[in-house]
Amino acid sequence: MQTQSLSRRTFLQHTALAGAAALALPSPARAARGDKLHLATNAYSWQVFYQREGRNFAGSLDAGLKDVAASGLNGFEPGVGGTEDLRTLLPLLKKHGLEMRSVYVNSTLHEPAAADRSVEQILATARAVKPFGTRIIVTNPNPLRWGGPENKTDEQLRTQAAVMNRLGKELAALKITLAYHYHDIELRMAAREFHHMLAGTDPRHVTLCLDAHWMYRGAGNSQVALFDVIELYGNRISEVHLRQSQEGVWSETFGPGDIDYEALSAALIRKKVKPHIVLEIAVEAGTPKTLDPVEAHRRSAEYARRVFEKMA
User: Does residue 257 form part of some domain?
Assistant: First the structure.
């Protein structure tokens, strides 16, 4: 099914964004930062660390991205709801020398009408961000009520996989990779949703964003399940999200803990893949509160670079 044509307003927004591409691309000197491994961070990490200090990351984006750069990170993976979200973000990424190699979007793909709207929105976003060096779009085709008790039917899962395959094919034509993301709810009921999104799609069009800790937690705190997924789908991993826990509770920094990330890095090397590495540390009830956002991410980045240095 062909997606609908873009509205005139959206087209003009794309034109304005694309026209500014040369100005918004980070300079080579800033983008490199002298680090061999390009290491990015997801916006969610900063949102929750700011929130626990009573601050609003999105509401003070200039200062927030300055903190991201100060922590020693190279890139920023924003959560994008549409091209409008990019108009403020892109100039600030340039200002602070941060790349945007990937963007994260939510989508609804299991119902035909909603799926068509999501596909149109994602393709519009892809066309807007391509001039700025973005090469991966990560999507989580979440339920209508994220985290709710409902489970999708077999028919909905087949629909979702077919739409995702179509979306991945259209993004590939733009030279952008589609990466499937999940949380713990997709691992319910023998992980049938997670597995069908990979078994039911073409590896040429749909890759995997391995969220290591959601796989670990969703499988009952199991490293066996996590490493089995790498064995099954390792060749399709285009991106990895990094988070750690201590005795099941999210850690304040990315470092040693419940998941053996050194073994995970070695497993990816054996698979001969070099995914995009993105920090997504977070806080929950029980997470220690001893560091400010910059220091927590600085320490996390140092450890991540040691563990994944061979991915450079």
Answer: yes
Straight-line distance from the first to the last Cα atom of the chain, in angstroms, rounded to the nearest whole number: 39
Under 8 Å between Cβ of 49 and 56: no
216 residue type, one letter: Y
Number of domains composing the chain: 1
CA distance 276 to 237: 9
* Distance (Å, whole) CA 299 – CA 169: 38
What number is the average pLDDT over the span 49-55?
A: 97
* Domain assignment of residue 159, given as a range: 33-311
226: which 2 tokens? 């996590």
pTM, entire model: 0.89
Question: Tell me, what's the pLDDT at 81?
Answer: 84
Q: How far apart are CA 215 and CA 223, in angstroms?
A: 9
Q: Are 233 and 271 in contact (CB under 8 A)?
A: no
Whether 16 maps to a domain, the answer reads no
CA 152, distance to chain mean position in Å, is 23
Distance CA 232, CA 101 (A): 26
Question: pLDDT (tens digit, 9 = 90+) per residue, 217-230?
Answer: 999 999 999 999 99
Separation between Cα atoms, residue 286 and residue 221, nearest integer Å: 17
Is residue 6 included in any domain, yes or no?
Answer: no
For the chain, give the percent of residues with pLDDT over 70: 87
Q: How, if at all, do strands 39-42 and 75-77 pair? A: parallel
Asked whether the predicted pLDDT for residue 180 surpasses 60, the reply is yes
In a domain, 21, yes or no: no
Q: Locate all alpha helices (DSSP H) within the chain, ordered by sequence.
A: 8-19, 21-24, 28-32, 43-51, 61-70, 86-95, 112-129, 154-173, 188-199, 212-218, 223-233, 261-270, 293-307
Contacts of 44 (CB under 8 A, 6+ apart): 79, 280, 282
CATH number for 199: 3.20.20.150
121, pLDDT greater than 70: yes
Helix 223-233 × helix 261-270 angle, to 10° = 20
